[in-house]
Amino acid sequence: MVQVEEFEDRSAAKESSASRGWPGVVAVAIGTFTVVTSEMLPVGLLTPMGGALKVSEGVAGLTLTITGLVAAVSSPLLTSALGRFDRRVVLCALMTVLLIGNLGAAWAPNFGVMIAARVLVGIGMGGVWAIAAGIAVRLVPPKSVGPATSLVFSGIAVASVLGIPAGAYIGALAGWRAAFVAVGGLALLVILAMAVLLPKLPAEGSVQLGGVMKLFGNPQVRTGLIVVACLVTGHFAAYTYVRPVLEDVSGAGAGMIGTLLLVYGIAGVAGNFISGAGAGRSPRKTLLVITVVMAVTVLLLPFVGGSLWVAGALMAVWGLTYGGVSVSTQTWILASSPDAREGASSLFVGVFNGAIALGALLGGQAADASGITSAMWVGGGFALAALVATAVGRAPASGRL
What is its main location (predicted)? Predict the structure, then answer.
């Protein structure tokens, strides 16, 4: 009798999970959109933020660097510390930390309070991203895991198209503090959606920090992390300085810059889904294409980008390829560690965010030392390094999760 009841309970749980599967995936996708928008929001608000907080734009830019570094460090630590808790509860709690961070940034009377608020944003972001990366496989049938994972990561691509420009627009219309309040409001809606739409998601097992670090010993995971580090460092070394490059090489004005970045972002959303489908079959082949095309595109831009039409085409191709980086590399990592998805995801998020900070730093140093277009050489060089790592490193046989 007890066995029958247990079987019925398990069946009911599976039906509940299936019925909430895709709505839950959508809620998590909006969550990734919210955390990435929160991270990148200062990009479009540096000037008014710096003026209000009485710091230079360069110092105000530390609000982005701090968030990325905190996310890089906190991701594996949080995954370990919260390993025994229901994932729905954890996601809602981390989104609450993100909400408080955004509201704290909106209220910040000085730069010190702003930094503290951005630390909270980094904590929330690192935890949400690490857990969200492996959620799709628990919400939908095996045949739908690939599209569901792509949908979760589409939040990252869409944030670059809609989130950051929308924040800048709100800042221009109602002040920079209103932009942080708006993203905080979105975080509140995500918390409610996750609480309602996600089923109970008990921890699949405790995640010890030592166990997370041991994943570096898995050659497939290690290769995937090297590819992530090289690709993301290269991208941000170049992309952080793409505006002055386009102004210098293509003669693009402010209005055209916005158009070119929009083209890039829309292509990035398409690339996310195209690469997600390809990575489900073969992460290595998909990333070989991505690394080759990205390297060529970034290196060509200073040479042939004098025409706005050519520059626009190159930006579209760049967006198409980089849009597939997150989902392809995450698929590689998850397929390489099916029994330790959250631990591997936390390493992925840590390396990814650390690479963002490193790329922006190296690109800036190159630009200051040898001219703005040298940031493109750094970016292209790292993309070629990712190509080599992808070609010679150990890779999972397929991307099936």
Answer: membrane
